[in-house]
Every structure is written in structure tokens, then in C-alpha cells.
What we know:
heterodimer; B: mainly alpha
Amino acid sequence: MTSIDELLSQRRRGALSDADERRLQMAVQTSSEHRLTLLAGEAFDRAGVPQSDDAALIKHIVRQVGGEWSGTFQRVAARRRLSRWISVPVLIAGVAAASFGGYRAISSPAAPSQAVSFPALPTPALPTPALPADGALTSNAPARTAPETPAPIQPAARSPLAAVPEAAPAALPSARSDEPPAPIVEGAPAQPPPPPPAAPSSVAAAPIRATAAVPAAAARAPGAGWRLPKPKPRAAQRTGLDTEVAAVLPLPSAAVAGSAGGPAAPQREPDLESASALFRRANELRQNDWAAAAALYERLALRHTESREAGVAEMALGKHALAEGRALSAVQWFEAYQRRAGGELAAEAIWGEARALQSLGETVRARELWTRLIERYPASAYAAAAREQLGP
Amino acid sequence: MSAARTDQLATARVMSEPTLEAGCPRRLGSEDPAVMDPLAELARQAAAGDPAAANTLLTKLAPALLRVARQVLGPQHPEVSDVAQEAACGLLQALPRFRGECTLVHFACRVAMLVSMNVRRREASHSRKTETLSELQEVYPTSTLPPTPEDRLLGERAAGAIRQLLSSLPEAQAEVLGLHHVVGLTMPEIAAVTGAPLETVRSRLRLGRNALRLRVLEDRRLFEVVGGSDDLDR
């Protein structure tokens, strides 16, 4: 059997049979999700409708793009060649500089200004490879026969690139953070044990490892005390979201309380008269018993005037009154909402009031409201509708 | 005839235009798209470097590229034509990798979707620094609304929520969500065009929808309209 998703796609192509159309309408009436999907699809189709200047635009695109095409774009190929020529020397220079900096960091263990002074790396006494008999490799290569620490480079011999790590010692810990801890060498000062992991996150593990590898003096160097911000626990993030959502949505209050308070939190009696509780109950009731829901909405609007839920309640009451033909009541609710400062639904409230006034025969006031709507919210969808109402 | 019905018919016409959907099987899987797609030969010639074939191909596919760019970005967005042009470049460059497992139109739609999503992600990143996304949408209204029954407004807001998700979801999920809800492809078609297994597509769409549900619940206007006590709460 064809799924509703597929029916929705086929409907957008105009390829739906009558039976499938009926089935889809039934699904849309019983499911808000399908309804939203259908309406969103229609909105996307409206957005994708060709426009009057498309022919010229397509011609322009074809001229711009097709004119340069010969199996590849010449300009792109030229740019790639250029970037290749530039990137290779830059890469070589970067690797050389990094190698040189690393060599310097290893070779000057006693330098007090170094933020990271790794103990001298033990060079294992590897057997010297047998040289060819003709001695071809002996001309420039010094034979390394002993595990000596390389001699520090004299300042006069340093290249300008070498000044970078010295000038910015604090940058070194992060540069070394990906390396494994230095091996403990015989005779070297004992390293302090790594601190226990403070955070379970793998993100925090990198600086901890870097800190464990540096001596205490280096850890006190400027900039060495930085830490990654502790990641906010997931539970805390959820709590923030839940409380915010719970302010306006009918989430089960127990779930919100549980996530906020944790197991040790005392169980409190739910406040059935709070704004969020009234709002939630009204939303539950409105599906089956609008009169009861309206009573709760009204109570909410009167008792918790300043709450956000009260604003939504006023809008719901206004729209329902308008739908039932009680235009005067609708005007009052829409006006009540507009008295709120910064109401998110203000454009909708003006639109609703104008519609109510129109149905009362007060076309002049309705036109005033539509004009005001266009002035205040020119980019809103309601403004577009108001322009249509006002006419040319 | 209502304006809504007129728009639906216009949309259906656009979808069935020979330049857009010629040879596009209604249901992939039932027929071999490579056999059905008359653009395949043109694509092969264009991939081989034939500029005339490339021009013809682009002339046929550019409307689809523009349509997807408008659907993802909104018809008033200033970068629609740039996105379509960039997608056209990307399409020609990707032709050698086109395996013919879907129609060329759907392949082009996917390229346009990815390019448009990149623009949205870039804008979302910029807007986090400078302004909120809703402010951005006020600047670039997402559609030119005809007289508005409330359903249309609701559809616009739902479409806006989906557009926002395209810039915040992981790319694979956003791509599937966009190809299904924005472009209107079925899941087998998405599986064919992305080369992912059908179950993977279903899974990505399910995750995308979960995010969409949350977004709808956070949108007070949408939530108020849908009532809040039915399947969206699940």
C-alpha cells in the first residue's frame, strides 16, 4: 500500500487518483503532521513557481556556464594549477619550519624560557647501518654512533623562523598536545602523575594530557593555565530547553520536574492554577470541549495577564470568537492582545481585528487596521494579504 | 477557481513540463531511469566536453535548478540566480560521476539542493553573529503570498521551519529532509539519487522529522494552530 509520504509527493506532481486523494484528505484531517507536511509542500510549490524573467535568467546562466565548458572549466583548471604551484612551496616551507621548531624544542632542554621542556629523548643505541664499501654516503652525513643529545643551535645561527616559538612559549603546549606523553627517562625528574580526568568528555582529555606532559614550572607560564570550558552537562541543557518549552507547551509536568530537580528534589504538588498548567489543560480540552477550554483560556488571561501563555490564550479566544461569528467579542480579545508590548502575534492580532470589524460592517476602521498592518509589518505574510484587501 | 487550486495546477504543470520531467518515471524502481531518461545521451556528450550539448542540457535543466533554489531559499532571496548558476557549474562538473541510477532531473535537483543548503548554512552562521534568523527572513520574505487563508500562512510557517532545519541539521539528514519535503521526491527516488540504501533514507528522514516536530513545538504560532495535543506531541 502506498504510504502517505508517497501520496503527498504524488499530489504535488498532480498524479493522484481520486481514491488516493480521498485517502490523503482523511490522513490530513486526522494528523496535524500530515497536514503541516501538505501545507508546507504547497508553500514550497508556490515558492518554486517560475517567474516572468526566467527565460532571460536561464539564457544568462547557459551563456555564463555553458560558454566556458569544454569538459572542464578553463578558469577553474587554471585556478587549480595556480593553487598547486603556490601550495607546494608553502607546504614544504611549513613542514621545514615545524621540523626546525621541534628540533629546537628538543635540543634545548635547559632553556628556562621554554614553556615545554621535554626531557632529552633517549636515542636508542641502534646499530649503525652498514655503509657501502665505497663510502658514497660518508661525504656529508655525520655518523651518529652515540646517543648524544644534539648540540643546541647558537642564536647567531638560528633562522628568523626559529624566533616564533621563543617569542610565544605559551603556544607550545597546544602545539604538542597531540603527542603522547614523553617517555620517562632514567635520571630525569619524575613527572607528576596525571590528574584524574575532571570531565568525562573526550574534548577535555587533550589539555589534560598536555598538562601532564609539562613540568610544573612550564604549567605556570603565561597562557599555560588555560582550560577548555567545561561542557555543559546534557541534563542541564535539557533542563533549559524543557523549562522553556514547558512554559508554553503541554509537556507532562512530571517530566519537566523530573529533569529539573533530579532524584533528590522534593516532590512538590503541581500548581494547577499556574499559567502553564492552565494553558496545558486548555490545550488538551480544546480538541473535544471548546467551551471548557475557553473557560480555562479566559481564566488564564485574567489571572496571569502578564504571562506569555495569556497572550496566546487571548489570540485563541479571539480567533475562535471570530470563527463563531461573535465579532464583537473577537475584537475585544484581539485588542487585548495588541495592548501587550512586543507581542509576537501582533500582526495576526491586527489582521484578526480587521476581519472582525469588516464582518461588523465597519469597513473604514478595518481599512485603517490593514494600513497600520502594512506600515508596521511590511514583510509579514499578513501585510501581503492586507494589501490585497486594500486593493490597488 | 480558487487561487490555491490555480497554484496547484500551475505547480503540476511545472512538474510535468517536458523540459523538467521528460522521461522521468513517476516511480523509480519500476522502470530503468537510464533507459527512460532522454537527457542521458545529452549528459554523456556534455560530460565528454561538447559545449553545444552542455548548453542544451543546461537549457533543459536550469528551470529545475531555479525551482529548487527558490524553494530552499525563498523566491525573493537575492542569491537565487547565483545559486542556480553555481549549481549549473556543479552539475556539469559532476556529470562524469553520474551513474544513471536516477533521472538527470533528480540528479540536478540534488545538486541544486546541496548548493542552496550551503548558502543557508552560511547565512545561518552569519546570522548567529549578527542577527536572528527570523530577522533575516523578514528581510528576505520567503514567498509572495496571494490572499491568505490561514492554511496558507500555516504552510508558509511550516516551510520556514523546514528551511531553518536545512541549515541546522547534519548534512545527510538535511539533504533527505529537503529532497522529500522541499523538492517532493519519494523515498525510493531519494535513495536512487543519493546512492544510499532505502532504509538509511528512511532513518535519516525519521530523524529529520523528529527535529521538525521539536521545531514546530517551539513555534508558538504553529503550535497554537495545530492545537498541541495530537500526534505532534509524540
